[in-house]
Automatic annotation (TrEMBL):
InterPro entries: AAA+_ATPase (IPR003593), ABC_transporter-like_ATP-bd (IPR003439), ABC_transporter-like_CS (IPR017871), P-loop_NTPase (IPR027417). This is ABC transporter domain-containing protein. Gene3D superfamilies: P-loop containing nucleotide triphosphate hydrolases. The keyword Ribonucleoprotein does not apply. The keyword Calcium does not apply. One of its GO terms (molecular function) is ATP hydrolysis activity. Residues 23-233 form the ABC transporter domain. Keywords: ATP-binding, Nucleotide-binding.
Amino acid sequence: MEISVLDKREPCDCENSANEVVLSVQNLGCAILGKQLFSKLTFAASRGEVIFIKAPSGSGKTLLLKHLGALQTTGFHSGEVLLGGQTIQELGVANWRTRVSYIWQQRIEFPGTPAETFQELVSLKFQKQRQQLHLRPEDFLSAVGLEPDALEKEWRVLSGGQSQRVALILSLALKPDVLLLDEPTSGLDPDTTVLVETVLQNFPAVKIWVTHSPEQVDRVGGREIHLTEPIEL
Ligand SMILES: Nc1ncnc2c1ncn2[C@@H]1O[C@H](COP(=O)(O)OP(=O)(O)OP(=O)(O)O)[C@@H](O)[C@H]1O
């Protein structure tokens, strides 16, 4: 198990992209099912920055994203994650999840329509203070190549690629500080992939982005964290 961090950052023209650290990961270690997936993983990300996670299958990329999103603690035995200098415990899990958004790799199977899901999200108690601050998901539709009525269709009739993009734009509209992207273009054709990459590139959140595509890293630009095969304990 080895971790390397490559710095291939492009100058970022994101609005207000001061070098303020938003997300900081310090000495994070994870062992699961008798294997050490990674240890002493350390990096910090500033507003707007893209950090790609590249690693073989089964090396813990999804577990890492879920842990950063306060969705998974099993196996994480050391280290800490800070958002604006505060731990998950200090900020509270609900607050953390409103600010750090995990975009699922799998197809979403919510009941009803995306428009209804979005209304539920903004009316959740912990979103109330941000209710006036959210963006309109419909404003992102054409930028990611979706039809104008995509938010009004039932989730169940959307294709995998449509559902993936709809889930993404609902998250964007809630203005997270950090986006955790688990192969966000895996179900998309090449042209739509580029559309989504451009939207994400210009969105001023930290993006922690799992990809298997070197071409994607070259197009988008950003730092790379490489995790290698797990070690048997
Ligand atoms: N909740 C869990 N409990 C126990 N083991 C788990 C859990 N989730 C994942 N694992 C195990 O942890 C390891 C890493 O899984 P993870 O899904 O993070 O890999 P990955 O790098 O994202 O793989 P892929 O590229 O195939 O999606 C795997 O061996 C998996 O079986």
